[in-house]
Amino acid sequence: MQLAEAVLGLVGRRAEAEVVVSSGTLSLTRFANSFIHQNVAEEGDAIGLRVSLDGRVATAKTTATEPNALAAFVDHALATAAMQPVDEDWPGLVEPTSTEDPGHVDEATFDASPTDRAAVVKDFVDAGDGLLAAGFCQTEGHSVSFANTAGHTARGRYSTAILDGIHQTGTSAGTGHAASVALGDLDGSAVGALAAQRAVESATPFDAKPGEYEVVLAPEAVGTIAVFLAFYGFNGKALEEKQSFVKLGEQQFDERFQMWDDVTDARAMGIAFDTEGTPKGRTDFVVDGVTRGVAHSRKTAKRLGVASTGHHHPGAEGWGPIATNVFVGGGASPVGDLIAGVERGIYVSTFNYCRILDPKTMVVTGLTRNGTFMIENGRITDAVTNLRFTQSFVDALGEGRILGLGDDARFADSEFAPGIMYVPTMRLASWNFTGGAGG
Amino acid sequence: MFDYATAAVEGALAAGAAYADARVVVSKTETINVQNQAVQSLDRTEQAGVGVRALFGSSWGFYATADLGSAQRAGERAAEIARASALVPGDPMQFADVPIVEDDYETPYQEDPFSISLSEKVDLLIGVTRTMQEVEGIAIATGNLTFYDTDKWFVSSQGHRIHQHLVESGGGYDATALGERESQRRSYPQSFGQYETGGYEVIRKWDFAGHAGRIAEEAAALLTADEMDEQETDLILEGSQLALQIHESVGHAIELDRILGWEAAFAGTSHLQLPKLGSFTFGSELMNITADATLPGALGTFGYDDEGTKAQRVDIVDAGTWVGVLSGRDSAAIAELPPGGMVRADGYNRLPMVRMTNVGLLPGDSSLDEIVAETKRGVYMATNRSWSIDDKRLNFQFGTEIAWEVKDGKLGRMLKNPTYTGIGPAFWASLDMLAGGDEWIHWGTPNCGKGQPMQVAHTGHSAAPGRFTNVRVGVRG
Asked: Is residue A437 pLDDT above 80, yes or no?
């Protein structure tokens, strides 16, 4: 907080200002071909400043903390703002309000050593029993301080630990993933064993015929769907600009579908305020299939006449506010039961390289990866070569399309970011596979 | 600044590293975003710090700090981190020799982009968004400019001392038309803008004001255009889309770290296997690809890479045959190839890794007009809208913003939501006409993601329009 207040002191009475200071360490141990090949760490302070001179707004970031550099940093931000036209939608600053730190922190993870991470990697690699392993183990510990010239302050600390990897047979790969606030929660052996099992079982894949299939999507695949819904759909800027599929109050999804954002949930990771200092609570996006809300920053909230939900981030002016503590409601079905209900379908471990074709219809193309299997008469029969799909994610979750939800909700990785989606396995009525990855 | 880098290297060596290098990086970035004639964001980011890399056995250890005064300690930490990797060891990392250099390099540029007034830059973007908004049906008009100024001081335990000053400039704009159940977008000069090494002259060269009206009119017209039918037909790609095709289906596939499996869990591997280097048929005889970090003005141009290897041109595909890779000193040593000088890092706080330089398709002797005239039945697609490719860089599906039907040698009706799909080598084998001359442009990609933690690289891809035969187009869900 000292650094944030020092920056505000340099601004003085010259402008409205808000400062976010993040201090800490990010460490990542990366392995491939079953050995650690890249092992990195970085530490330091990152300062973000936003100033407003009667609505003329500029932002600046720096890693420099030396007094003269900070003074020059502040002066430059103010000079830049002075040259801008007035932003008619400048929402002003958050007034003083209380923010409770949810305490998503584990001190041992905050100070985890490279040896601690290497031990988790070793367990993952050993679980493959000679298979070729690749992946990473990351630990992070950061303290974040916020202060603005309206007198509002907030602070929080968080830690994260992530293990993500694959085992490879030469003809196939299988994936495993775990995330928590505590490195001690990561079971490298169990995650590695699941990856190895998927790799071995998919070692002799066949080319499935493209077409519509019933699917059972593992949490990583569901996490990708949730990322796209949050990024392109439940986004106040996209809604205001009519680029989102969202129609508030309408039954846009199957009644089994629930999706919300809540950093205060005991299972979540992160801190409970955004880069504008707005406290975060629970934001419901979909309740019983009915679309109920979107993520807002102060600016998008002002434009639509609602309150900010605390989802501003450094890129929010362009991308819009985005939720990063997302939950998708799970069910009571063991994964085996979900598979048992499928007469003919496909089980997908993960999606890969997914890209939006049209945000209004949420049509996305991508591929399956690291474990794709045919389901016949209620059981997994053969491995399937990776498939390309082109599918509307909204249509896939539409009324009557969710046939089951697993009891296995957990943090799932997606190709975009781990530790932001807490989702279950999902059985869906139909998915449009348009071709095989091998041609 | 060399002293800080030297202290970091000495710290790593004292802690037992077999080799170490360090980069002190001081950078500033200015980004201006305008939407509908209003400044959406104006940001200036400054970074300064030292990143040190230490080799110990089979692993790199890397540590970065913004506190230059603790550079020696950072070196010690890098060595400690590398040493901890011994719990899961591999074969000792090899490291190819390169000339030991003391040198200084600066990007040639005419106008320092940071010396141009903010008001001139903002006025340019407000002007183009105003022009686009004047077209009926345009709901969102955005424009952006970004400028990078980076100083790097590199020191290695083998004696390198290299300073580089790199200047990069770029930007672009787009118009979005909103229909009842769809949105259509057109961009200029290409999707995400055009970026090059150089100063503000890059922006002036692209004549932002001169194209805004046309771009907006095309976006609006797309709302009522016919949907592209699914079919197999001849496909003519506009230059910037062909540049992205090169980036995704060639550039990443030839990265030696991917081929060696170092990126298997995240970015993926490659369908290319080293024993086939020199014999594998990647495409038709018109396919001549180089990785050339010396091209004046191209975005992937520099003096030395981030492990002190001089920028160079490497042949990648020669008349359709795969002959080269993108490599660094460690990966090249394993593959027993000369190091290509293609290892770069995103800032002081990231580990250098194999990245594309300027991976481009050498020009042909035709032109877009000639290609269209020679095409009896096909489609012409321009400006990327979506891109997706599998983890071995084989199966791709791309969407573009716009297309036109080609019939009996002439461009016909406009088509919306165009896509095409294929398998890399089969697609490249169908390349049968290629433009050149002034249609050969060094397109820049400023947003290439790779690595963990994520790194964003700036890469270049020279390309001119080309024709591919019998391609599956119009695939949608």
From this structure: no
Which CA distances in Å does A134 have to A122, A176, A303, A392, B164? 11, 11, 46, 32, 34
Length of chain B (residues): 477
Q: What is the pLDDT of residues B217-250, one digit of tens each?
A: 999 999 999 999 999 999 999 999 999 999 999 9
> Which is nearest to A200 in space by CA: A166, A154, A243, A165?
A166
Residue A407 vs residues A333, A343, B280: alpha-carbon distances, Å = 5, 21, 48
Query: Using the beta-carbon criterion (under 8 Å), do A122 and B88 form an inter-chain contact?
Result: yes
By C-alpha distance, the chain B residue nearest A132 is: B261
The pLDDT-based confidence of B181 (bands split at 50, 70, 90) is confident
Confidence of residue A15 (pLDDT cuts 50, 70, 90): very high
Is A367 close to B421, i.e. CB distance below 8 A? no
CA-to-CA distance for B242 and A134, rounded, in angstroms? Answer: 32
Other C-beta atoms lying within 10 Å of the C-beta of residue B454: 12
Of B63, B183, B261, Cβ closest to residue A33: B261
| Numbered ranges of CATH 3.30.2290.10 in chain A | 2-198
- Report CB contact under 8 Å: A60, B477: no
Residue A335 has pLDDT above 70, yes or no: yes
Do A88 and B38 lie within an 8 Å CB cutoff?
yes
Task: Report the distance separating Cα B116 and Cα B147, nearest Å.
Answer: 11
Interface test with B, best of A28, A34, A45, A63 (most B CBs within 10 A): A63
Q: ipTM, 2 decimals?
A: 0.95
Q: Residue A128: helix, strand or coil by DSSP?
A: coil
Q: What is the pLDDT of residue A186?
A: 98
Does 3.30.2290.10 match the CATH number of domain A2-198?
yes
For residue B162, give the 3-state DSSP assignment: strand
Q: Which residue of B has its CA nearest to A246?
A: B181
Do A357 and B41 make contact, defined as CB atoms within 8 angstroms?
Answer: no
Cβ <8 Å between B33 and A43: no
Task: State how far the Cα of B51 lies from the Cα of B65, in Å rounded to an integer.
Answer: 7
Pairwise CB contact (< 8 Å): B81 & A60: no
Mean pLDDT for B174-199 is 95
In chain A, the residue whose alpha carbon lies closest to the alpha carbon of B30 is A60
For residue B475, name the pLDDT band (cuts at 50, 70, 90): confident
Q: In the predicted model, is pLDDT for residue A439 greater than 70? A: no
Residues B395, A83: C-beta atoms closer than 8 Å: no
Q: Alpha carbon of B191 to those of A306, A320, B144, B201, B465: distances in Å? A: 33, 19, 12, 20, 16
Is pLDDT above 80 for B328?
A: yes
- Out of B117, B386, B392, whose CB is closest to A357? B386
Domain definitions of chain B by residue range: 2-222, 226-473
Q: Give A319 to chain B, closest Cα distance, Å.
A: 11
The residue with tokens 């200029």 is B188
**CB atoms A35 and B39 under 8 Å:** no
Q: Check residue A396 and give its pLDDT.
A: 98
Contacts of B467 (CB under 8 A, 6+ apart): B234, B235, B236, B237, B371, B374, B375, B378, B431, B432, B433, B434
Cβ neighbours of B20 (radius 10 Å): 27
pLDDT beyond 80 at B75 = yes
| CA distance to partner chain B, nearest, from residue A332 (Å) | 31
Q: Which of A25, A27, A38 should one mutate to test binding to chain B, selecting the residue with the greatest count of B CBs within 10 A?
A: A38
Which residue's structure tokens are 């020696």?
A: B72
Domain B2-222: assigned CATH number: 3.30.2290.10
Which of A35, A228, A360 to probe the B interface (max B CBs under 10 A)? Answer: A35
Q: Which chain A residues contact residue B51 at CB under 8 A?
A: 42
